[in-house]
C-alpha cells in the first residue's frame, strides 16, 4: 500500500533513491540514433512532441481507457459476486482518470521536454528526479487508493494494480512506438507505486550508515530485484507447467507481468521489514491485502507454499552467510504466518483466513 513517507536527505537514502530510479530507465541504446525510430524519439521527446502526446491522451482517450480498464477488472473478478455496484465503479473510474491526467501533466512538463534536445543529449532522456515524480503523484494516488478502501466491498482495495495494469495496456495501444518508449517508465511507475514500497524502503534506510550490514545487503539486492523475480517466476513455470488461472496460463505474457511485479513487491516488503526491525509490514499490509483478492478462491496449497519458498531460496542463494543471518529471522516469521493462516481458514475475523496469496499474483 502507498503511504505518505518523509524522506530524509542522508547518504544511504540518496543511494537507494538512485537505485530505485534506475528501475524506470527508458530502455534505449545508442543504436537507435542511427535509425528512423531514433529520430522520431527525439521529436517525441521534445516539448512539442510531448505536448502532442499529452493532447492525444487527455480527455476522451483517457476517459474511455480508464472505463475499459475497470470493465476488464470487473470481468476478471466476476466470480466474486457483487464486488462493486455501478455507482462505486463509476466513482473509482473517475479517480483513475485523475491519476492518469496528473501523470500526463508530469510527463508533458518533464525537464527532458526541451525544444533544444539534440542527438548528443539522446542518451540523457530519463524520468524527472524520482522523488519529484513520487511527490507529484502522491496526493492523487492516495485519493485513488482511498476510493478503493472506502468501497462497500473491502476486497476492491486489492483490485488497484489490476485496474492500473489494464489501463496501462489500453493506453499503450493508442501510442506510436516512440511514444511507448518514452511513456513506458511513467506507466510502470504509477502501477508499482501503489503496490511496491520502494519509497518507504529508501526512507527507512535513513537510520543506518552506508557501512552497516543491513544497508549493504539492501543496496546489493535492490538492483537484483528484477533478476530475482524473473528467476523465481521461471522456476514456478517449471514446477507448475500446466497451471491455469482465471486469466489464463501461468506462462501467458500478461500473467508473467503480474507475477514478476508481485514477486518484486514481496522482496521490497522483506527489505522494509529488515530496515524497520519488525515483520509488521508483511503481517499487517501484504498478506491481508493478498487475502482480500483471493477470498473464496480454491487453489492448491502447494502453490501457495512454493511461491514463498522459491522466492526465499533464490534470495538466500545470492547472499553471504552474514546477510542470511540478518534476514532469516524475518523469512522464518513469514513462514510461520503462512502456516498459522493455513490452519485458521474460515475465521472471518482473521485477515489471513484464506491465505492463498499466490493466486493474487496469478490472477491479476
From TrEMBL:
Any one GO cellular component localisation term in the record: phycobilisome
Instruction: Name the keywords, alphabetized.
Output: Bile pigment, Chromophore
GO biological process terms, alphabetically, are:
photosynthesis
InterPro entries referenced in this protein's UniProt entry, alphabetically: Globin-like_sf (IPR009050), Phycobilisome_asu/bsu (IPR012128), Phycobilisome_asu/bsu_sf (IPR038719)
Could you tell me the superkingdom of the organism this chain comes from? Answer: Bacteria
Protein's UniProt keywords contain Cell wall biogenesis/degradation: no
Q: How is it placed in the membrane, per its record? A: Peripheral membrane protein
Q: Which Gene3D superfamilies match?
A: Phycocyanins
Location of the protein in the cell: Cellular thylakoid membrane
Q: Which family does it belong to?
A: Belongs to the phycobiliprotein family.
Name of the featured protein: Uncharacterized protein
The protein's organism comes out as: Dulcicalothrix desertica PCC 7102
